[in-house]
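Work Package 4 report. The design task specified in the project plan requires that, given a folded chain encoded as structure tokens, an amino acid be chosen for each position. We show below one input record used in the internal validation round.
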């Protein structure tokens, strides 16, 4: 569980992260969708590490930025809860737990160091 994110549940805050790489996932309709992996996410106000990594969809806002491995990004995002784990209703298996994520990234910009 991401305890540092749990403190700010429901808030919209500014974060900084390091771009790691692009990836792919299957969306709910079965089509391939590009994703982006950010690592070392810190709260921009306190400079405190909130999570080690996070995945986002590779949206047009990220596409506009010339991303290179190791570049630092700053963005606003909302802290939300989500259920992670596996459910199988046929065999009554429920291994879900509650965790926290960042959603709806906006004001994405590349930080020059």
């Amino acid at each position: 569980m991401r305890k540092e994110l749990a403190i700010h549940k429901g808030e919209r805050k500014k974060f900084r992260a390091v771009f790691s790489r692009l990836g792919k996932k299957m969306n709910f309709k079965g089509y391939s969708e590009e994703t982006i992996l950010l690592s070392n996410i810190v709260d921009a106000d306190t400079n405190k590490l909130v999570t080690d990594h996070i995945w986002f969809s590779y949206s047009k806002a990220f596409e506009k930025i010339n991303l290179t491995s190791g570049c630092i990004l700053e963005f606003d995002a909302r802290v939300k809860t989500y259920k992670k784990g596996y459910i199988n209703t046929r065999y009554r298996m429920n291994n879900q737990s509650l965790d926290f994520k960042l959603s709806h990234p906006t004001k994405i910009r590349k930080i020059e160091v």
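The first helix runs from residue 3 to 6. Validation will be extended to a larger panel in the next phase.
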